[in-house]
Design brief:
Blueprint lengths: L1 E5 L2 E8 L8 E5 L12 H9 L2 E5 L18 H16 L5 E6 L1 H10 L8 E7 L7 H16 L2 H9 L3 H13 L19 E6 L7 H10 L4 E6 L6 H4 L1 H17 L1
Helix pairs in contact: 1-9, 2-3, 4-6, 5-6
């Protein structure tokens, strides 16, 4: 992967398809313990289906990007959406963007799209299992992940992707969500300011969140929201129901590119 400087840190990234001066860019924002590599071949496939370029990056503290100090502030997703993401988009020369966000990445995409700084660059949001408030089911699943990190081979599996950042990536995410203060985390007040079209893909068997998240986004966003609810699917639709997720996202992007 290549690196670029954004916000005073070195950020790893990779590109697929045409450059930002030729076509819109699909910007991939990974989940709370993911990175650029954990998207696997999905970004390249979606770029190929839409004719867009793809920018896939690891946030600071993840993958091969620079580490961050722990503990992370409970506002870390706000910090990413309001500051780190626009700095990255500027550094990467992204002119027209569709934000493809998974879990934490989806929440970051929503936060960024609620700012005037996102316009007119951001043209739409494609969200997988985003959170707009903290649910008890989420806290239970993240508590289970902590136990697995301490007592199973989960740490070794994540280390393959994060290397020396593995503890920074995991504990930065895990300890924030399990902090008692995080129970009050809620970004619903930002939703009315989002006027670009939104696609939400959610699995019915997601251990990290329920359809209440989708319903809140539909009810409160200031622009059109489309849902895709996948049966027999957990927290990662782009892996668990790849073909359906790919075709749904591609159709959404193509439609927006034609308008």
């Amino acid at each position: 992967m290549d690196t670029l400087g954004a916000g005073g840190r070195r950020i790893e990234f990779t590109r697929h398809g045409p450059g930002p001066d030729v076509a819109p860019t699909l910007v991939f924002l990974h989940d709370g313990i993911g990175c650029a590599a954990t998207w696997r071949d999905f970004p390249a496939a979606l770029a190929g289906e839409t004719g867009c370029g793809a920018l896939v990056y690891s946030r600071a503290g993840y993958g091969g990007s620079d580490p961050v100090a722990l503990p992370r502030p409970l506002t870390y997703m706000h910090d990413e959406g309001f500051s780190a993401l626009p700095e990255l988009l500027d550094a990467a020369g992204v002119r027209r963007a569709f934000l493809v966000g998974h879990s934490d990445g989806g929440s970051i995409a929503l936060l960024h799209a609620s700012t005037t700084r996102s316009l007119p660059r951001v043209r739409g949001l494609l969200l997988e299992a985003p959170h707009v408030f903290c649910e008890e089911i989420t806290v239970r699943a993240i508590g289970k992940a902590r136990d697995e990190y301490l007592h199973t081979d989960l740490r070794a599996k994540l280390e393959r992707h994060h290397g020396g950042n593995v503890d920074c990536a995991f504990w930065g995410w895990n300890r924030a969500w399990l902090d008692p203060g995080f129970l009050a985390w809620n970004i619903e007040e930002c939703l009315p300011a989002i006027t670009v079209p939104v696609l939400v893909v959610q699995g019915t068997d997601d251990p990290y969140g329920t359809l209440r998240q989708v319903e809140a986004i539909e009810r409160q966003c200031g622009g059109p929201v489309r849902r895709c609810i996948l049966e027999r699917c957990g927290h990662s639709p782009h892996r668990e129901r790849r073909d359906r997720t790919l075709s749904t996202m591609a159709a959404f992007v193509r439609e927006l590119c034609e308008t």
